[in-house]
Specification:
Number of domains: 1
CATH class: Mainly Beta
Structural class: alpha+beta
Distance between the termini: 25 Å
Mean pLDDT: 91
Largest sheet: 5 strands, antiparallel
Strand order of the largest sheet: 3-2-1-4-5
CATH topology: SH3 type barrels
Helix content: 25-40%
Radius of gyration: 16 Å
Order of helices and strands: EEEEEH
Strand content: 35-45%
Number of helices: 1
Length: 88
């Protein structure tokens, strides 16, 4: 299973002649290659997989994805806690 994470572009730059962006993933920042999304601009949301921005998203789509990821994370934490306490 592949998972692409939405993030917001906060800076554009080039590295080894490739378009790159500094992406903010809810406070964690990492670089991603923008070769597949050359029209991306600072302030755009993109989904990133394996260090590549694959698609530009509007803010509403990005926020909906982030809400679902947060919900999934909370569910997995609750499940792990139940398993550790022997409730499972």
């Amino acid at each position: 299973m592949c998972l692409a994470i939405p993030g917001k572009i906060v800076e554009l730059f080039e590295e080894n002649d490739l378009p790159m962006g500094l992406i903010d993933f809810s406070g964690a920042r990492n670089n991603a290659c923008l070769s597949y999304t050359p029209e991306a601009e600072v302030g755009n949301y993109v989904i990133v997989h394996a260090g590549f921005a694959l698609q530009i998203l509007n803010e509403e789509e990005a926020m909906a994805s982030l809400r679902e990821l947060t919900r999934l994370s909370a569910f997995m934490e609750a499940d792990a806690s139940a398993e550790q306490s022997g409730e499972k």
